[in-house]
Amino acid sequence: MTEAISPLAPKTLPDMPPVPGVTLATRKAGIKYADRTDLLTMLFEPGTTVAGVFTRSRCPSAPVETCRDHLPGGRARMLVVNAGNANAFTGKKGRATTAVTVKAAAAAAGCGESEIFLSSTGVIGEPLDPAHFERHLLDMAATARPDGWVDAARAIMTTDTFAKMVTRTVSIGGVDVVVNGISKGAGMIAPDMATMLAYVATDAPLSAGVLQQLLDRYVGTTFNAITVDSDTSTSDTLLAFATGAAAGRGAPAIADPEDPRLAAFAEAFADCLRELAVMVVRDGEGARKLVRVTVTGAESDASAKRIAMSVANSPLVKTAVAGEDANWGRVVMAVGKAGEPADRDRLAIWFGDILVASEGERAEGYSEAQASEYMKADEIDIRADIGLGDGCFTAWTCDLTKEYVAINGDYRS
Amino acid sequence: MTEAISPLAPKTLPDMPPVPGVTLATRKAGIKYADRTDLLTMLFEPGTTVAGVFTRSRCPSAPVETCRDHLPGGRARMLVVNAGNANAFTGKKGRATTAVTVKAAAAAAGCGESEIFLSSTGVIGEPLDPAHFERHLLDMAATARPDGWVDAARAIMTTDTFAKMVTRTVSIGGVDVVVNGISKGAGMIAPDMATMLAYVATDAPLSAGVLQQLLDRYVGTTFNAITVDSDTSTSDTLLAFATGAAAGRGAPAIADPEDPRLAAFAEAFADCLRELAVMVVRDGEGARKLVRVTVTGAESDASAKRIAMSVANSPLVKTAVAGEDANWGRVVMAVGKAGEPADRDRLAIWFGDILVASEGERAEGYSEAQASEYMKADEIDIRADIGLGDGCFTAWTCDLTKEYVAINGDYRS
């Protein structure tokens, strides 16, 4: 496993303020890792609303099923997250563990079972002992503090090389509210591990319906626009919580997603999701370069997304970026294989600001030396214009390096 | 680039007999490689029928377009193949080159232009000078010989580590006929290269319609069932030729694909396609292990194929195989992400004969030591039973090694 921090990590850590209505606690539960925190709880004030989106895997983990069951209630009082064991493909034992954990959490928080949300990240197929949770939850609820965001981001890491946090303060109806977020993992980022997890909390007074609408609106262009290795986890979970505590400072309750007072908040919320998502790519296994793939001129946005993901997932494009090789022929290949409407003779491709190909052939005056120089950067922009319509999409990925193979293939040798 | 022969290469070369009605020639045209053959022609007797399937890329190479234009005629007299330059994404220049080449080949073979078929494999985006063909084709047609199959398989290699050939002799209406095939390349197998090419020739008297039906029937479970890196080339071409020369020895002309006299031939033909296709995987970039992925119990064969390809294309499954790691959790992940009907709690997974998971959890009595021992083999069988229906499919892939990344990312450093 890699020990060094990703070279693409943010240079500074954000100063994470408390979110009124949220308290946090972490513990060393010893689920898999020795001598580090691996258990996180977030407690929410009564009345906190919740929204979520989950993996589309047909083999979801037991905690994902619990969250799906509880989400229609729209209320959350406690989130419990562990690292080191995904409780995925664990059969009846896995469901027994989530049932015991939900009961213990509800007792600790003094709430109904449907107000408990769970996530687990780590090994697939290994039974997870519910005693880890029963032992700690009561004490964690009793000692939770509002200032634990950095510790929270650390406790959910598996082989992440840096803790992922974001914060924004934004006005809603003239009152400042806070949006905090944490995330971990990149696709199935690590040996035997599975999970992308992200949590966003705000003190804005938003209904569960508004919160879900915001998630649905922005997840497609943020978390669903990133890829490290095209391998979708069994446990992907993005949950958003709104405590409503800012109502006490005069913030208006928002129950209509079209409410104009929501506009600035929605933008900050989308911004948080995007930043958390791109941080996951910055910590992709073995990543040395961040790659932004923009497709314009497709027949529709959906078509542009499929083409962008075809480029972003192409092993040959990703190895070329790793080799600092301006190999635009592989971008042509990846556009061509996407199965979407495209016309070879209208296609144009840029690396950064450099036009490398247009009208079905290498661009006039293309300089290999100039393009190769560009490829040395840490952050690479690839743009393809399809020349057919107005559809556009931006995806983020990283390069494919020998370290990726080493991390995922060598760890037993 | 790798120099060593793939450890998965066949241990013996087949003895390639002539195909009556086919003569071959190769030349060192110096298109890209120094001091090796890079140009192949096959000449066919008048009356030879032809069928073909091509890349579904929206950015196909110029030679693919030529083949598509000529195929409706159903007749072939000459095939021209070069290695070192794919004539792909070369715009008007590319089309001018194929036009000049077709004209030169038709003059050399003394036939109509629609009886000429072309393929090019190599760099994308580099103009291909038609003089390479004009200089050689007349002489190649004049000196072609029936016994040139091994040389032919070598002339079309790019970074292949071994020449790929197959032969079968099979009876059709009581008369023995020959089926010979050659292929090259694995997806986009090499730096800047693009192309999977395969050619099959027989002296059986088959109509073009019968030949096309056979290709359409078998390509899905052979060439379209293999993957090295999920990157579809701009130039994939599979052409089949039937000279009909065996009619002179009493073989019946077959014009109906349901003709019962075709049965044994069809089986041998399918066998040739499968063997050529699997040889392409055996020579996949950096491949150290051949992996057969079989999905049974899916809702339909089409669904089984999508699940099998999701497993076969998963970087995490492929790196686990490279690491000789019996990581069945990644197979669960890949089944789950395929987007096909699946029920986690009915899923069963085998590595070889070892049941590793069933009914949604690790199998009773599963031995990690036994499974790890199995993973040391050169050829790995992964089987997943979905438990929903009768759909099944088998795909072939190889492991994902650091050599793959080195071959595709390091070659400029």
Description of the molecule:
The structure is a homodimer of 413-residue chains. The first copy, chain A, has 413 residues and is of the alpha+beta class. Helices cover 31% and strands 25% of the residues of chain A. Chain A has 2 domains: 22-282, L-amino peptidase D-ALA esterase/amidase, CATH 3.60.70; 290-409, Ubiquitin-like (UB roll). Chain A has helices spanning 62-70, 91-109, 131-143, 149-155, 208-219, 263-282, 301-313, 315-322, 328-337, 368-374, 402-409, and strands at residues 22-27, 39-44, 49-54, 78-85, 116-123, 164-172, 175-184, 193-194, 197-202, 237-242, 290-298, 348-351, 354-358, 361-362, 379-385, 391-398. In chain A, the strands form 3 sheets. Chain A has a 6-stranded mixed β-sheet with strand order 14-13-12-15-11-16. Chains A and B meet through α2, α8, α9, β14 and α11 of A and α2, α9, α10, β13 and α12 of B.
